[in-house]
Amino acid sequence: MATETLQSDSLLWSLKNVSKNWDSGVRLSDINLEIRQGTTAVMGYSGSGKTSLLNLLVNYESPDQGTVYREDQYFQTGPALELFWVPHSLGLWPQYTVGEHLALVHPNRETQQETVDDLLSSFRLMDVRNQYPGQLSQGEASRLSVARAISSQPKVLVMDEPLVHVDLAHWSTYWQAIHRYCETNQASLVFSSHLPELVLREADHVICLDEGKVVYSGTVSELYYHPPSSQIASYLGPINNLSELCYEPEANTAAHQFKLVRPEQLTLENDEQSLWEVQQTTFSGSLEEVRIRHQDSQAAHIVYHRPARTYLQKGDRVSIRLLMLLFCLFMAGGCHFDSAPELRFSKIKQWSVPSEGTKVPAPRSVNVGPNDELFVLDNAGRVLVYNAKDELIRQWKMPDSEIGKPEGVCFLKNGQIAVADTHYHRVVFFDAQGQVQKMLGEYGEGPGQFIYPVSVVQDPTGNIYVAEYGNNDRVQKFSEQGEYLLEFGKVGTAPGEFQRTAGMIWHKGKIYVADAINNRIQVFSDQGTFLEILGTKTGGIPLYYPYDIAIDINSEELYIVEYGAGRITKTNLDGEIIGRFGETGVKQGEFSTPWGLAVNSKDQVFVADTGNRLIVKLIP
Prior knowledge:
The chain is mainly β. The chain has 10 helices and 42 strands.
């Protein structure tokens, strides 16, 4: 059946009751899909129908039943190609050189040479520009097929497992080139892959196929955090099914509510009283697979978690802590839930940061400066400044942002703005208008060096504190002139050790540090002495991935934003919970992976609601 057209502002394709058959069986069965602008990944195991689906989208094949509708108005692009397809076979032309492949498809002769040279450089093909496809390695041929597609400057790219033969050391570099093209040219991308890491990194939406049928179609975030089943969840990596692990009646109730959790949503802790014994551990650097056995039932299970380093050994007894509510499962004592009073605000205001092309970036860090100006960092690599009326009054770009975006911003006593330029291993100091004044740091683990700096604070005497993560988790202290003074902390789970340092504050000679993966706030003297884990004296604060901390100077009360729980928690300086506000969601009063928060002189709380791409203002 022929491809038809459909009118819609954001729709690229709509498939209605589509089936495609082999001579010996069904390839695709009763497919009903809508594919919209943006980046969509098609996932599935070998033989699931990924290639067949892409073939239908590009009209290389036609369905045996049903109809593929295409939005032709979107595809009309003038002299450039409306669509470029990178098939699984790469489709290279044996009679043309590498350079000729790019030049032949380029729509503009005036800019052709410049574009060709840029793409050859970006995809590391300059040295083979005069060679033919038969002379290339698989990796070079794979890179050429993608570079050629970009050179054609299409409105839509359709790629069947692009860069599948490329070495992992350069994989992210080439994907940055694809991402950069789509963002700059407002182009859409549909690609197939079986790699969870790639889909999580690049895609907005995902379609999951199994034996020719669609088993999931929706956002990547929804599939990752709220999967409909263990089997479908596995498309994006390992998942823990807690309902299979509970053997106490109370635990069954808790695990039913939080049945499926990702490795980073729980942690395993040594616990001599637990009935679970470690049988075997396999550590892969970012993920640990732990085989455990229940001593009463003898049931064996596999649990996945993400420790900073491996520390469990055969024979250890462990309890399994679900970080979302900080309650212990599977211990002899059963489970318990945390409860706290609800914080109330008279008004909630929210707004988006300015668009960047066709995309609306997400805020990821906020802080308050003089006259209650709000400084915001977003994932477009920008610093945005709002006045007390929430009006954007100025903005500027980071010096570099292609390989990663900054996370922490601080207004200093001398009027400069310090930004933790996380993925460039430095702190950048700007004047109030966004001009770079100086930089501090370089890549490394020594004094004055950083892996991933993530937060900057200053004390009243001018000293600057920089927290970093990246398996070198610590806080370094510098003089106002940038002279290294001291450091404290290291990677680990013991008191005074960190797993993913995050936000910090200084208050009355103390440094409060959000220790995200360890789900706690740690307190140090500003001379680096460990003092306490906040709330220990009052029984502890149940937290789930605390990502930032702020202080209301008027009341001397702390606000903590919880990335994993989608909420803010308010405590006093002793760690006693005063109240909580929010939960994970998309409605007003709900947050999705909130990254930062700040409090101004009027006790108004600002939250960088990263997952929902909003700045949220909570007014008492």
